[in-house]
Design brief:
heterodimer, A: alpha/beta, Glutaconate Coenzyme A-transferase, 10-stranded mixed sheet, 3-stranded mixed sheet, 4 helices, 13 strands, B: alpha/beta
């Protein structure tokens, strides 16, 4: 058994540096904020115009004027600020966001990201802020399942779906491994104990090696 | 000077068929529902709407499309929720509506440029992707970029918290989103606000300056929360 979504988010949260500015995408990435203690001084940026997103609001505290980019009613942390969309994307494109954490359909060995167009027939596109974030943040991490439901690898030699941005992903957190995109293939930094190196190779489309100091990927049980 | 008006209908009647309308809002926050609801009744057609998202089938921007009032949508998020097709996606498939999908930062900067007298700008966002196809490109300071042109509109419909009679506007939390930039980029700006004030707002509470605002209407929206 691999990590569940909350555990993948927990694992990524462990790698955030204190004092960093972080933007979380929809789905699994937004769960990362559940695993960051307020004492850590991390500022979550939401592209609709917030720096300093706090926990999701309780029903009593919810205000329909205070939402994040995923339309969740949220709270603000002390020191938060609010600004308009042009200012928000100036912040993003200007390189003032340290880490963007996104979901993905595919990531290629060269760090190309495909996460905005699933290719489903007649479904319209939804790009939101993904391109701006992937191109402009100082570093881009992806949280995703290692394989699709029909067992295809989401880590690929070349993306088959429309690209979000080229050469942007530096690290991938999946249900079975933590992987760096090195420019010379995928490099597994951590791997769950129930998956062998051979199985990892079989489940990955593209050159993947274990790091010399590769360790066991573990996450606590999380009840939500 | 008093920009407050009693009747949304009277003001919105100025919107003729074929107009380009910018609509503020991100998620639930800042959507001008009072104005959109009235506009839907007035039913101008062949509109181009510039709006961040049309993913919600029960939202009023989507309702304008369903009511056959819209011929073109400029947006960042067009995909309907769920696996089935939204009414908008059906119209898109049938060629009844045209779609221009933009990265959100490009969407907002094109609007900002429209209101700031900048005819176009280069951005690396979208280069080498489907959304950059057909756009002029240039390598600037080592970065491959696409050229994006300013966006302008005929009418901006904006939702806010407070406005004074001069047209100065204050927003509540993330209600601000696209409001201030859309107001700058359109010939005529109509703001609905929950509170319309006789006295001027304190200068340091003003997030959108009166020069950009033409009409003020009382919003029927209430703020759900503390």
């Amino acid at each position: 058994m691999g990590l569940d979504k909350s555990q993948i988010a927990w694992r990524a949260a462990q790698d955030l540096k204190n004092g960093s500015v972080v933007n979380l995408g929809l789905g699994t990435p937004v769960l990362v904020s559940n695993f960051v203690k307020s004492s850590r001084d991390i500022f979550f940026q939401s592209e609709n115009g917030i720096l300093g997103v706090g926990p999701e609001a309780t029903q009593e505290a919810a205000n329909s004027d205070l939402v994040d980019a995923g339309s969740r009613k949220v709270t603000l942390i002390p020191g938060a600020s609010i600004f308009d969309s042009a200012a928000s994307f100036a912040m993003i494109r200007g390189g003032h966001v340290d880490v963007t954490i996104l979901g993905a359909f595919e990531v290629s060995v060269s760090g190309d990201l495909a996460n905005w167009d699933s290719g489903a027939a007649d479904k319209a596109p939804l790009v939101g802020g993904a391109m701006d974030l992937a191109v402009s943040a100082k570093t881009t991490w992806v949280l995703m399942q290692h394989n699709t439901k029909d067992n295809k690898s989401r880590l690929v030699k070349r993306c088959s779906l429309p690209l979000t941005a080229k050469n942007c992903v530096e690290r991938i957190y999946t249900d079975i491994a933590v992987i760096d995109v090195t420019g010379d293939g995928f490099l597994a930094r951590e791997l769950i104990s129930s998956v062998s190196e051979e199985e990892l190779r079989n489940r990955t489309n593209g050159n993947i090696k274990l790091a010399n100091n590769c360790c066991v990927l573990k996450a606590p049980n999380i009840t939500t | 000077m008093d920009k407050r008006h009693q009747s949304a209908e009277e003001v919105l009647k100025e919107i003729k068929d074929g107009s380009t309308i910018m609509i503020s809002g991100f998620g639930e926050a800042g959507v001008p529902n009072t104005l959109l609801s009235e506009l839907k009744d007035l039913h101008p057609t062949n509109l181009t709407i510039v709006v961040n998202s049309v993913t919600r089938p029960h939202s009023l921007p989507h309702a304008l499309i369903e009511a056959n009032m819209v011929s073109k949508v400029i947006t960042t998020s067009a995909r309907g929720r769920g696996k089935g097709l939204s009414k908008f996606e059906e119209k898109l498939r049938d060629g009844e509506v045209e779609l221009e999908c933009l990265p959100q930062g490009t969407f907002s900067e094109r609007i900002r440029a429209g209101g700031a007298g900048i005819p176009a700008f280069f951005t690396p966002v979208g280069y080498g992707t489907k959304l950059g196809e057909g756009k002029e490109t240039r390598n600037i300071q080592g970065k491959d970029c696409v050229l994006e042109e300013a966006l302008k509109g005929d009418f901006a419909l904006i939702s806010a918290n407070k406005a004074d009679r001069f047209g100065n506007v204050n927003f509540s939390y993330t209600q601000m989103n696209f409001g201030p930039i859309m107001a700058t980029a359109c010939t005529t700006t109509i703001v609905e606000a929950r509170l319309l004030l006789e006295q001027p707002l304190p200068h340091n509470h003003i997030q959108l300056s009166s020069v950009y605002v033409d009409y003020l209407i009382k919003s029927e929206e209430t703020n759900h929360g503390p």
